């Protein structure tokens, strides 16, 4: 594509939330084009959780069965003491999730999920190598200028462009996100080494808690051939310009030395590991203005401790689509108000609990998260 003079809806960002928004809006009959700054699709990231609340949305998009085939199906969420191994909580998933919450709970590689989402979109509507550089609000549209020189006039713009969203800057001004004081180490482990250690590889999510740190581990493929872990470790500052940097097995051993043998086995099976800062923003009361609207990390970024960050972005996309379907393009202002009024309390609650890092550490009923159906829930 060299230039598009006019589109109805422009989605800025083709990540998990943006791709979901594009699919849902297209399925609802809207004309949608998606613009992504990355030069091409790549299998980025590592493990991610997709709860029943969002598998219901993928059912609507037509991806539920495919994702069930690819992803791992944990039977339980276990929280355990990181030193003794004592169980702190045991939350049933697996068949129980299907029965009680209405859909599967899966863990999957983010890149595998993202690939399925991108492949489900008409390829002539997804435009890579489009980094947004300027936004001009006009009477009847928004003029978008991209670094490659293309200009696009869109009647509505959906900002799915992450924590450093340019749409957010347009609405609220420039403000860098705040470092949370925590980093996460991420690694895909060597399965031969992990099996040789004799550790229990039952299909479950294990969260190992220690006084000032934790490590979470789970499979990312249905055949259990890929295993992933992520940590949460307090660190005073993040002094790197890059979004992540390399770590090492030696650094992991220094942090988690003396932990439970399963934790030690995970670290021993580590070949490459990276570390990432966790960023925060305060709760935002403005998600839209004029013809611009935001979703996901652009308006409610959160630490990953509830495993619901991507899920909240996809829920946003579902509710925004429903609101626009009712109001139509012309009454977008009403749709945006309905969307924000419906989503704000739930997203803020998840954001707050995620940042507090208390989710499922002790026994509790997660139905308010997992049983929720964004496709049928009441709109405000």
Characterization of the model:
The protein is α/β, with parallel strands linked by helices and 380 residues long. 33% of the residues lie in helices and 27% in strands. It contains twelve helices and 18 strands. A hairpin with a 4-residue loop joins strand 8 and strand 9. The longest helix is centred in the C-terminal third of the chain and has 25 residues.
Lay out the secondary structure.
Blueprint: E1 6-12, H1 16-27, E2 32-35, E3 47-50, H2 52-61, H3 64-70, E4 76-81, E5 87-92, H4 94-101, E6 106-109, H5 110-119, E7 126-127, E8 132-137, E9 142-146, E10 151-159, H6 166-172, E11 178-189, H7 191-196, E12 204-210, E13 213-219, E14 227-234, E15 245-246, H8 249-256, H9 261-268, E16 274-280, E17 288-289, E18 292-294, H10 309-327, H11 332-356, H12 367-370
Parallel strand pairs: 1-2, 1-10, 2-7, 4-12, 10-18
Antiparallel strand pairs: 3-6, 4-5, 8-9, 9-10, 11-14, 11-16, 12-13, 13-14, 15-16, 17-18
Helix pairs in contact: 1-5, 1-10, 8-9, 10-11
Question: Which terms summarize this structure?
Answer:
18 strands; eight-stranded mixed β-sheet; alpha/beta; 380 residues; 12 helices
Q: How many helical elements?
A: 12
| Rg estimate, integer Å | 21 Å
Global shape = globular
- How many runs of DSSP E, i.e. beta strands? 18
Say what oligomer this is: single chain
| Classification by helices and strands | alpha/beta
Which percent band covers the strand fraction? 25-35%
State the low-pLDDT regions, or none. none
H-E string: EHEEHHEEHEHEEEEHEHEEEEHHEEEHHH
What's the end-to-end separation, in Å? 39 Å
Helix content: 25-40%
Largest sheet composition: 8 strands, mixed
Mean pLDDT level: 94
């Amino acid at each position: 594509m060299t230039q598009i003079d006019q589109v109805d809806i422009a989605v800025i960002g083709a990540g998990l939330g943006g791709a979901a928004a594009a699919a849902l809006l297209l399925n609802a009959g809207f004309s949608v084009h998606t613009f992504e700054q990355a030069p091409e699709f790549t299998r980025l990231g590592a493990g991610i959780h997709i709860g029943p609340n969002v598998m219901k949305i993928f059912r609507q998009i037509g991806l539920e069965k495919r994702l069930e085939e690819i992803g791992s199906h944990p039977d339980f969420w276990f929280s355990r003491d990181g030193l003794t191994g004592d169980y702190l909580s045991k939350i049933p998933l697996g068949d129980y999730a299907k029965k009680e919450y209405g859909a599967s709970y899966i863990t999957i590689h983010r890149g595998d999920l993202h690939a399925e989402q991108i492949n489900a979109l008409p390829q002539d509507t997804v435009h890579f190598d489009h980094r947004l550089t300027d936004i001009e609000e006009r009477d009847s549209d928004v003029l978008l200028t991209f670094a490659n020189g293309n200009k696009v006039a869109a009647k509505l713009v959906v900002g799915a462009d992450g924590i450093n969203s340019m749409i957010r800057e347009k609405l609220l001004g420039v403000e860098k996100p705040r470092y949370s004081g925590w980093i996460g180490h991420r690694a895909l482990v060597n399965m031969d080494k992990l099996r040789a250690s004799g550790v229990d590889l039952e299909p479950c999510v294990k969260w190992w808690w220690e006084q000032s740190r934790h490590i979470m581990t789970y499979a990312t493929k249905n055949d259990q051939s890929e295993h992933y872990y992520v940590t949460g470790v307090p660190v005073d500052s993040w002094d790197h310009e890059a979004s992540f940097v390399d770590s090492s097995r030696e650094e992991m051993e220094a942090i988690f030395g003396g932990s439970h043998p399963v934790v030690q086995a995970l670290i021993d099976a580590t070949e490459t590991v990276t570390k990432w800062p966790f960023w925060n923003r305060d709760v935002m009361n403005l998600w839209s203005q004029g013809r611009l609207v935001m979703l996901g990390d652009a308006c409610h970024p959160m630490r990953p401790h509830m495993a619901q960050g991507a899920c909240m972005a996809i829920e946003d996309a579902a509710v925004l689509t429903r609101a626009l379907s009712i109001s139509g393009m012309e009454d977008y202002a009403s749709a945006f108000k309905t969307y924000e009024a419906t989503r704000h309390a739930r997203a803020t609650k998840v954001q707050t609990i995620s940042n507090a890092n208390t989710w499922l550490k002790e026994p509790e009923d997660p139905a308010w998260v997992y049983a929720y159906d964004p496709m049928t829930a009441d709109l405000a």
